[in-house]
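Hey, can you fold this one?
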Amino acid sequence: MPDDDGPAPARVTDIPAPGPHGGDAEALARRLGVDPGAVLDLSASLNPVAPAVGPVLAGHLDAVGRYPDPTTATLALAEAIGVDAGRLLLTNGGAEAIALVAAELGPGWADHCEFSLYRRHLPRLDPAGARWRSDPHSPLGGLAGPDERADVWDEAFYPLATGQWTAGRHDSAGAVTIGSLTKLLACPGLRAGYVITPSTGPRAGTDLRARLVARQARWSVNGLVAAALADLLVPVDLVLWSKQVAQLRHDLCSVLRVHGFEPCPSTANWVLVPGSPGLRSRLAARRVLVRDCASFGLPDTHRIAVPGARDLERLEAALCGAG
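Sure. Predicted structure:
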């Protein structure tokens, strides 16, 4: 029977093993025999204050009946970010952006405690090759210092951490910038990312973008993104969103401390919780999913996405029951 804290918990042995990247709500729902919507997925770090994209997409459903043309969407995003559209490439999520850039730049290096897709897609690990870096660091959550250098910067979470679209290293340092609208707009199923090629340095100009286009599968950016992105960008308020995320992150940390955890400092829309063995399984049994960080080389550490206010209440109830 359900108790006052929500549905009766499943057995911990019923919880599926974590995947390599989080976002395992459907796998957990299948194992528990519930609808995916019944699972609170805090293993994927999405914008907790983004408006729902469904109403906007509903006005563009006719786009699925024709081949996509990302021209208008590219122009809209380039204007929002403040870059030349000739140096911006829309992609099928940040994952495709990473794969395309890695294939084009060739051997490179990413530290072990970095987002694992970098190492997965690099054709060969070479400390002398292009260096990859996330900012804020995924999973540690801190912003890069002014003296840190990299050839490719993944800024998937940068707007929510800073209230700005980009640090602009594609202009100031000749670096390639990768971004993810999937995270910013909280629409992982829609798949929308981008690459900004540098204006300075050996990779400057439009040639790099042209080579990435040549590698990209035809019609990679789907029709809904191509048709709706300009409208999806209208309500974006990075300054407001970053302030709201910071407050919600503070609230999350307060709840975690009440339950005996000490989250690490973070500028991102998630926090790391070291010294928390078994936390994923205990919470998943109550239909709340957090990220196991063993794949980052951080055993007994979990990453918890910053939830909205109502979801924080649900997390707190699960923590009370999973103690």
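The first strand starts at residue 40 and ends at 42. Let me know if you want another pass with a different chain boundary.
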